[in-house]
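Field: sequence (string)
Field: structure_tokens (string)

Example rows 1 and 2, in order.
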Amino acid sequence: MGNLLYWAVIFLIIALVAAFLGFGGVAGVATEGARILFWVAIILVVLSFIGGMLRRG
């Protein structure tokens, strides 16, 4: 799970650097990649939390 957030931060940094240097296309793609990885990580955290709650009964 932490690995997904790590890659989301890496893509966000790439997007910021690319935007600063004027590479709009690369910045847009990196931003979308970061956004997708972030939401996948959030969904997995929520599912893990719900699964843990159901196991405890």
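Row 2 begins here:
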Amino acid sequence: MPAKALSAAEQAKLDVTIRAAEQACRAEISVYIGDVAGDPREFATSLHNTLVLPARSVLVMVDPARRLVEIVTGGHVRERLTDEESRQAVAAMTERFAAGDLAGGLDRGIQLLGELARD
């Protein structure tokens, strides 16, 4: 995650949120904030495929400049997290992003993903 996207304090808080969500849903959660090249879904999927255990992973990709958010889930996670639930998490994030709160949006969206994908 690019350092310029979040302050050190925001990054530390997000790391705590990610760990708690991972414990709740028993999946790895990764966040990418930065420029997206080409088709956003293809870009997010290619990032997700580079993760150590893609089947047990969730990738949240955000391109603030293009106002894009994508969530990619692995097969194991998809058994517990529906597309509609992923859309709920995106809606929670984008509501805060629209208010200029990138860190708060990510924090709330990841909390929600952890709750909804609970194993």
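free_text_note (row 2): DSSP finds five helices and three strands in the chain.
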